[in-house]
Task: structure prediction
Amino acid sequence: MYERITPPAVGERITFKDGEPVVPDTPIIPYIRGDGTGVDIWPAAQRVFDAAVAAAYGGQREIVWFRVYAGDEACEQYGTYQYLPDDTLKAIEEYGVAIKGPLTTPVGGGIRSLNVALRQINDLYACVRPCQYYPGTPSPHRSPEKLDVIIYRENTEDIYLGIEWKQGDPICDQLIKYLNTELIPATPEHGKKQIPLDAGIGIKPISKTGSQRLVRRAMKHALRLPKAKQQVTLVHKGNIMKYTEGAFRDWGYELATSEFRAECVTERESWVLGNKEANPDITTEDNARQIEPGYDALTPEKKAAICTEVEGILAAIWETHGSGQWQDKVMVNDRIADSIFQQIQT
Result:
């Protein structure tokens, strides 16, 4: 089955049920040592992993390591430019998991980034990054001890898809010409905008499917957390890019309030419910006025839309979320990317 690697004679594969791993007592885990500092990091990390498992399970469980190759080490084993051999991809697919060290950036074309290639080949769409402060470590934040979040970043779409053309490439020139002469003029909201003729071009695709599966995974994670931490924030730049970043936000809310309706409340819904709880006799218009800054300066059409929104929220979820019930549910909100990063810093 494999060309130059041999699976361990002992141990068992990790299997999956309903998307969750079923881990045996002796799981086989493929590992890629990595390049550069990986040569030094991996042996030390492996000792720590083994010691941690032994301590946690009293010697009753053990990782069975399976060495596979990628990066410079793979070229040594499989030949020039064989940075990501089929053996490695087959092993990761068969055993369901893998751990890797830092990998080189290939020279000579073909693969721009081994990390990105591994994500895309295996459809590893969710980059999950816990961020928590450890006392005594330097930090640029004003109150780093308050930072305790888990970031879910989409890994396979947007700029990570890597579709772009270099400035001066004939395809790039052709695309710019087509956009400038056909598509942009045909879209009134773009006005007289033009792409510079000496620009490079990149495509930024954000799909409904990709957005919602990421939010779905984040919602499921949030539901496993303590009540005080059950919050999902959609971070975006929808104020600038309405049909990609803004769509991500909208699709996220749509997913949360359909698949997880009984378990979640949006921030805006919580305002409407809270206003009703504080004043049971509040009118629809006063409720709308409290949730929408500048309400009185809006056009009649926009005022009517907000009032309809308030009525819709109360009609749909007051029985299940009102009278304080919403406080025990996952809070779903959104923030503009640069704004929330500034808040974290200060």
